[in-house]
């Protein structure tokens, strides 16, 4: 079942990836460089996915730290008092 889901995700990704190559504003004669770094920080088309990835990464990192902290607390709770330090 997982292979079918993976194949469907890959198929959707491949069919919709052509929509990601350009959006209005690329290739026009703008005063700012449409391929410059400022373009990627000011256009919502680029900024929203970057923010979503950063939020996901932060959630994963914080979740791992909280999980590790709760495991340490459980280990302290199960140790006898003379072995706790």
From TrEMBL:
Bilayer-crossing regions: 46-67
Keyword Transmembrane helix appears in the UniProt entry: yes
Entry protein name: Uncharacterized protein
Keywords of this entry: Membrane, Signal, Transmembrane, Transmembrane helix
Cleavable signal peptide: 1-22
């Amino acid at each position: 079942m997982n292979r079918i889901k993976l194949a469907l995700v890959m198929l959707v990704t491949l069919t919709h990836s052509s929509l990601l190559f350009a959006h209005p504003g690329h290739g026009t004669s703008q005063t700012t460089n449409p391929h410059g770094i400022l373009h990627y920080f000011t256009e919502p088309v680029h900024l929203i996915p970057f923010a979503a990835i950063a939020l996901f990464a932060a959630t994963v990192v914080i979740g791992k730290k909280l999980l590790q902290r709760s495991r340490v607390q459980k280990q302290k709770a199960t140790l006898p008092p003379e072995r706790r330090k």
